[in-house]
Amino acid sequence: MKEYRMKKARFGIGARGGAAGIGFGAALCAAVVFALVLTGCEFLQDFIGIGGTEPEEPEDISAKQAQAAAFSNGTEESGSVIDLIRAAVDESSLVIQLQPAASEGAEKVVLGVDDLPPGGFVLRHAGNTSLYPYTSPPEVTIDGGGMTVNLTGSAQGSLITVGAGVTLTLKNITFAGLDTAKDGSNDTADNNAPLIKVEAYGYLILEDNVVMQDNSNKGGAGGPGGGVLVSGTCTMNGGTISGNTYTSSGGGGVFLRGGTFIMNKGAVSGNSGASWGGGEGVFMETNSTFSMKGGTISGSSAYGGVSVNSGSTFTMSGGEIRDNTSTNAARPGGVYVSGGSTFTMSGGEIRGNTATDYSSAGGVYVDGGGTFKMSGGTIRGNTAAGYRSAGGVYVIGAFIKDGGGIIYGDTDATPKNDLEENNNTASGEEGGHAVYVHGDSPEIDSTLQEHDDFSIPAP
Fold first, then answer.
1. Count of domains in the chain?
2. Contacts of 183 (CB under 8 A, 6+ apart)
3. Of 39, 224, 236, 366, whose CB is crowded by the most CB atoms within 10 A?
4. Which pLDDT tens digit goes with each residue over 350-361?
5. Could you list the residue range(s) of the whole structural domain that residue 301 is in?
6. 161 within some domain
7. For the whole model, what pTM was predicted?
């Protein structure tokens, strides 16, 4: 795989949204990430296919290879950026290393309403997208070199859409959306879309130092979610999705609609959503899949961290779901599992989550028809303050604890819990510190380590 480095600004672009403009070459280097604003060029017809444009037959690019090499040495004019991209894409793999022009302070590319094409920057495979799996999908890697790409003014829409058959890898880059409530914001409107969308059979890989932040989606034609909407596959190996909002339901951070999310490292933190469905950090619907092997989901403040719905499956073998809060009835601080959905825990921790309203749980709430299977991991240090609530797990549906794993209680006699902070606590009337089973032997206060089945038979 060849790596191409783009250098040298050639001429200026005016300021947008109150931020100083930067060299067009540098802006273009960053905007290359999003396929540029040049929607009429051959490159878009051949590779990206904005709006489903039919690809043309590839041409001989031997001369363009030389032009690309010359540009990387700073000897060609900025128009050769298109030749550079074209040459690399025709090799079926593109690595873009962004190198901002030297200037004072942090580099930032500011995209105003005139810079964002309708529908954002869309990467789509130019081949037959009805076939799956693809034998050789195009691969694009963007290394931002620490650059920030910021929407401003009223530039609504997703920054990037990863289409079917495309694999996009992001490194060392920050994306900031529209949020009029943020201090110092120059935004004149909130967004109507998530920052990034991954369509069915599209692939997004997030590596270290990728940040998706400060995007407030107030609903509209752009789709649900605040940070990323996934209908294809997203693998998170690092980075942060934080400070995003979706006001129509959960999923301020990650919204899964029939997609797959694999979390190996990184953080989904401090995102917010609406009361319907909960799950301000992660919201799942339409038979989605989430595999959590590491990382953290934390910092939700009103409707809880994770919501598993509509036939979806969440598998937790590592990582932490921690320090989330719910202030609403029947919505837990940590994880909500709705009817027809399954949460399986074999490792990791659910800890330090809080629920303040009645009939809820600090840790996990298993609604009617939902299933929670636990064979490992730890549920500890969660609290619930409402009437008939659970510090650890609230059960209306099915909860099967089989094998390892610990759910701490708060009334153990001898020996006492190693650390007081491990205790799950239900402080409201008729609550269960470890487990509350709705309508049947409701209060289980002691620490649970053995096998047990707390399922409530369906009526």
1. 1
2. none
3. 366
4. 999 999 999 999
5. 283-459
6. no
7. 0.80
